[in-house]
Amino acid sequence: MWQWRPMAADDIDGVVVVAAHAFPNHFEARSCFEERLGLFPLGCFVLASGSDVSAYLIAYPQVIGVVPRLNSLVGALPSSCEAVYLHDLALLSNVRGQGHAERGFNRLLESLIPMGSKIVHLVAVNGSAPFWAKLGFERTINRHINSYGDDAVYMVRRVAMEQ
Questions:
Q1: What tens digit of pLDDT does each residue of 77-110 get?
Q2: Opening angle at CA 9, ends 8 and 11, nearest 5
């Protein structure tokens, strides 16, 4: 049975495999995933059955409008958690179309609301903008997403704090 749970260091191998399959044109090194888990474990989740990882979600505090370049370390996070950057939500094909992506995103929201996060922002790639729009994200202009490809779309969603 597949369930979303907090990511652990032992999950990184599975995360790297999922990332390679989900984002073949958006390579990121293992060190990027390790760093984000180390910097902000509250925003890192995997969809797993036992030790088998079929999806992951990584998010962390980041100033609205600031988008880290692909395959780069962020170094440090801002002290405020008003905005959270959803760096990745990736699933293997065997778990797609079963509602896992939306449940993973909702799990993230549950963890962010007590911290006072009011905005989630992301870069939609691989034609995923319609999916994010269904979850309440709106397209916004951001000229700093070049490393994500020509079809990349910067999107923002305000978080309802009364949840």
A1: 987 778 899 999 999 999 999 999 999 999 999 8
A2: 70
* Beta bridge mates, 117: none
Tokens 């992506």 — which residue? 101
C-alpha–C-alpha distance, residues 23 and 99, integer Å: 20
Amino acid at 39: L
Distance CA 141, CA 155 (A): 8
Strands of 26-125 (E only): list them. Answer: 44-49, 52-61, 83-91, 119-124
Spatial separation of the C-alpha atoms in residues 125 and 152, rounded to whole Å: 5
Q: Residues 89, 57: contact at Cβ < 8 Å?
A: yes
Q: pTM for this one?
A: 0.92
The full set of domains in the chain, from first to last, is 3-158 (3.40.630.30)
CB 88 within 8 A of CB 56: yes
Nearest residue to 108 via CA among 63, 71, 72, 55: 55
Burial of 147: CB neighbours in 10 Å, binned 0-12, 13-18, 19+: middle
